Amino acid sequence: MNDTIGETAGKIWQALKSKEDLSVAQLKKATGADDKALWLGLGWLAREGKIILAKNKASIKVSLKH
User: Fold this and answer.
1) Which member of 28, 42, 58, 60 has the lowest number of beta carbons within 10 Å of its beta carbon?
2) What is the C-alpha separation between 31 and 19, in angstroms, rounded?
3) 46-61 per-residue burial string, b: 16 or more CB within 10 A, e: under 16
4) What is the distance between the terminal CA atoms of the chain, rounded to a whole angstrom?
5) How far apart, in whole angstroms, are the C-alpha atoms of residue 25 and residue 23?
6) Which run of H or of E encompasses 24?
7) pLDDT in tens, 13-52
8) Tell me, what CATH number does 21's domain have?
9) What does the alpha-carbon distance between residue 5 and residue 10 come to, in Å, rounded to a whole number?
10) What is the per-residue pLDDT for 30?
11) How many domains does the chain divide into?
């Protein structure tokens, strides 16, 4: 399971590297991850202080911390 979380976190980071910010739905599509793996990967990156999560109306936007 930890391998899957780390792998998903890497895919999320790569997707965000080329964009300013993405919604959770856009990240799901970009990474091909299921809901559980996506949220675990986001939690991993958030815990490491590598991403910013911001509520934007009806969605959550994710961006890399610079």
Assistant:
1) 58
2) 13
3) eeeeebeeeeeeeeeb
4) 29
5) 5
6) helix 24-31
7) 999 998 889 999 999 999 999 999 999 999 999 999 999 9
8) 1.10.10.10
9) 9
10) 95
11) 1
